[in-house]
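>> received
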Amino acid sequence: MRYESGPMTIAARPGRRGPTPVPYPPLRQAEAAHPPFKIVSWNLLRRTGAAVDDVAALVAQEKPDLLLMQEATRAIGFLLDRIGGHYAWAPLPGRIHGLAMWSPKPWPAPPRVIALPSGALVHRVCQILDLGTFGVANVHLSHGQMLNRRQLRRIVAELPPRAAVLGDYNIVGPAMIPGFRDVGPRRPTHAMVEVLPLRLDRCLARGLICHAHAVLPRGPSDHRPIVVHLGPAPEAHAPARFKGMAAAVARLRRADGRGGGARRVPPG
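>> returned
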């Protein structure tokens, strides 16, 4: 994996340092002071699709807080020379392409790369970025409809309570991942053989609200970019298993209080 912030290293491009990484925060009431976080995801179509100039134009047009890319080749790394920022590339094993992330600001820590259950031909990986307030997974899943759902289950097991999974799912029909909601745009993002429209590029989220979303023009790729604006969900929208844990703790405390009163010894 490459993690860069300039032509060479992070130190080559001075700037404000990111926050110190902290443990995953507990789910709590969302703060209105935090504006939605804008994420763009685009499958570039390796070699014959979107090039550095196309990606730079997309950034200039959309000004995302985070850009996720699938089928990114080594050449996409020259994006740093064009627009600066911070970049990480995770090629698929044995392939010329892989996953990539770009951000205009430093990250709290470099993205992690985890291996996924593999198909017969292509070994898949996933990029996971911890932003502090929530996590983001960048994915390009397999075409097998059972395998790609297994890969999703592997990914969500690595994510914090608040998280989003974006990218090329290659899934037809619902993903069916407990605790996650499909919050991205519902329009088709890919046309198989230029005929059958499919919604392959998606965003699943847990503990987050999508304030706005869109599908952008396709450009030179065979996929359309998607845009989502995400923010922490109020406690009422938190995953049920976390609310259930809080209720269980409250019941135990009440029971302990009642038991403590019964054990008191009367004065005298």
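>> The chain has four helices and 15 strands.
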